[in-house]
Each structure stands twice: as structure tokens, then as C-alpha cells.
Amino acid sequence: MFAAFSYVCKPCMGSGDGKFLIHRIRRTTARAEMAIAVPKRNNESSHPKLSIRGTDKIVLEIARRQSQSNGLATHDVCRKPDFHPMFLEEAYDQCKNICEEYAKTFYLGTLLMTEERRKAIWAIYVWCRRTDELVDGPNAGYMNSSVLDRWDERLEDIFEGRPYDMLDAALTDTLYKFPLDIKPFKDMIEGMRMDTRKNRYANFEELYQYCYYVAGTVGLMSVPIMGIAPESSLSTQSIYNAALYLGIGNQLTNILRDVGEDALRGRVYLPQDELAKYGLSEKDIFSRKVTDGWREFMKEQITRARVYFNQAEKGASQLDKASRWPVWSSLMLYRMILDAIEKNDYDNLTKRAYVGRTKKLVTLPVAYTRALQHPLWFKLNTKYV
């Protein structure tokens, strides 16, 4: 439920060469990813076009399987690989180091979790980041469909207890401790495929589909790790929906913050029909000129993102007490990015909205206070819009 991890292009974490590497993180290129993968099974993507209603069905199915599992993890179905304890300790340490380096604020929040939960979150973070790096990292020039096909196959092997390297092994071990569903992981890979073939979105329905694949999925991955408070009054499906909404809200915020930067790469992650409603086109974005029409358009986009954050609050307050702080931190800090866009007079074409270190430090204890509130308090005292 910690959503998109604030992905940015960073030096690529290597994926290994099929060996368990004990003493260091091996750095590889996307070409190496192809070399280490199992023989290609020629399974082309079969994902149908996904609508907002389609994600509702996905959440319902995942929540149903989660409820049926009664908290039982993968090890109740198949045999756990025999990892040496020292090997696993170093695997999780490497995941910790990567999370601490690239997601400092989020990492701080994970330290309040139980040891098993924070290790699991680190493992998921690293897998998501490595997946994202295939498309947006420094080796993205080597990217093609076969790389993602083989990454998909590699994911299946992780879920079947056959990791390729140390970082994969951390996720494999996590699968035997928590009832994770493979569906969000596979859907995130589909989101990477979308990024390689699509950089225009006709309407919000199409943009929502993209946001689900690359960020909403992270929320769905996270709920089994975060845990649901025993005193929660919401259904499992409602909490999964809230996790999805936080991912969507975070990704919409990323998009609004990065409009100018994406335009420099020829990408426009904005609904084309809504641009036209305000008399705008891609030319206005590429000209980098803020007009009254652009400000009105941005107001509508920011309002939409805030609606998703408001909906996410419902689930953030219902998670296990030890897991709420990083979620509330993410929710509050991303809202502040939207505030920063407004303070920049909606100029996200030439300026980058950001939350300064001081504001972050001030926000963290406020988020911690919210995280301590009893779930019933939110049900009785909070209005959702």
C-alpha cells in the first residue's frame, strides 16, 4: 500500500547471472537479463484492455483468495527452498540497503514494522524497482519485448521456489511467509510493456489502466505484508480497494509533477480529450507556456488525484497498527506535492514541484500521530469525499 515508491531513473540494480551471489550485488545490463532467463516459452501478453470496472473485478478476486487463504502463505501449497540462514540474511540486507539508498523516507517508515514485515516490504520494493529499471533505467536502450517475456517467466520461477539470484531469493522467502498473489506482479510487468509501446492516452479510462498496472499493483502487493488490524470494521475487499486508490493517486501525482520532464522525452501522460476540453493540445505542452486554460485543466487533474487520496484513507486507517506510519507518510507527502504544484501557479511545465526536507521531517510525526488512531475513530470522525 506504499504505492509507486517514487520511482525515478537511478543506476540499475543488477539481476544476476543465475548464481547466488553472496558478497555483492552483481550489476548487469538488460542484455544480461535475457541471457540468464529460462528458454522462452513464447507466451505473448494476453491481457485484455482493462477498464476501471475491470480493476474492481481484479481487486474482488484477489481479496476473495486472500480471505480464503486465512493468512496461509505459499509454503502451505509447495515446498520451501532450502536457503542457508546466512544467505537469506545477506539477501535481505542487500534489499534493505537498496531501499535505504533510493527511498529514504519510505525506508524510515518501514523501521516501525515488525522484522518479518519490513524485510518482506524491502524484497517487494527491490523487485518492483528492478522491473521498472528494465524500461526506464540506464540500460533501457537494450529493451525489447523478449526481455519482459523472460522477466515474466522469471517471476513465475520465483513463485515456484526457483530464484535466479540473491535478490530474487529474498522475494521467494517472503512468499513462504505471506500470502502474496502473483496477479499484481504480472500486471506490473504488463505496465512496463505498455510503457514501451504507448505514450499517449485518449481519455482517463486509458490513463487509469496505465496507473493501475505501474502503481495500483504495488498497493495490492503490499496489503498481505502490512496486515489488516484485528479491530478493522471494513471488508478485505474495501481495504484492497483503498490500497489500489493510493497507488492510483500517487501515480497521478507523479504524472502531474513530471509533465515538463516527460514532454522533453516526447511523452504526454495526460487525457487528450480533457486537454481538448480546455482548448489545449500537445503543442501547448511542448511550448512550455502556462496559460489560464492550462491552470484550469490542472485544477481538474489535481482534484481527481485528491479524490483518490481521500478514498485511500479508508484503508490506511484499517491496517495493522505497526504498518500504518509509512502508508500515512506516503499519503500526506504526495498530497503536499499537489500543494506545491498549486503554489507554483500550476507551472509544472518549467518547474518541478517538490517537498523540501524540512517539510518532510515535520510531516513524519504528524503521520505517525494519525497512524496511532484507532480504526474506529476514522469511521466515526472522518468524512470521505
How would you explain this protein's 3D organization?
This protein is mainly α. It has one domain (30-381): Farnesyl Diphosphate Synthase (Orthogonal Bundle). It is 63% helix and 0% strand. It contains 17 helices and no strands. Helix 2 (52-69) runs parallel beside helix 9 (204-226), helix 3 crosses helix 4 and helix 15 packs across helix 16. The longest helix is centred in the C-terminal third of the chain and has 25 residues, at 292-316. The protein is globular and about 60 Å long. It starts with 29 loop residues before the first helix and ends with a helix. Residues 1-48 and 74-78 have low confidence and may be disordered.
Keywords:
single chain, 385 residues, mainly alpha, Farnesyl Diphosphate Synthase, globular
Total helix count? 17
Q: CATH superfamily membership, which one?
A: Farnesyl Diphosphate Synthase
Distance between the termini: 20 Å
Q: What's the helical proportion of residues? A: 55-70%
Residue share in β-strands: under 5%
Order of helices and strands: HHHHHHHHHHHHHHHHH
Name of the top-level CATH class: Mainly Alpha
* Helix/strand/pairing category: mainly alpha
Shape call: globular
CATH architecture assignment:
Orthogonal Bundle
Number of strands: 0
> Using only CA atoms, what is the Rg?
20 Å
Average pLDDT confidence is: 81
The major sheet is characterized as:
none
Low-confidence stretches: 1-48, 74-78
GO molecular function, one term: squalene synthase [NAD(P)H] activity
Protein name: 15-cis-phytoene synthase
InterPro entries: Isoprenoid_synthase_dom_sf, Squ/phyt_synthse, Squalene/phytoene_synthase_CS, Trans_IPPS_bact-type, Trans_IPPS_HH
EC number: 2.5.1.32
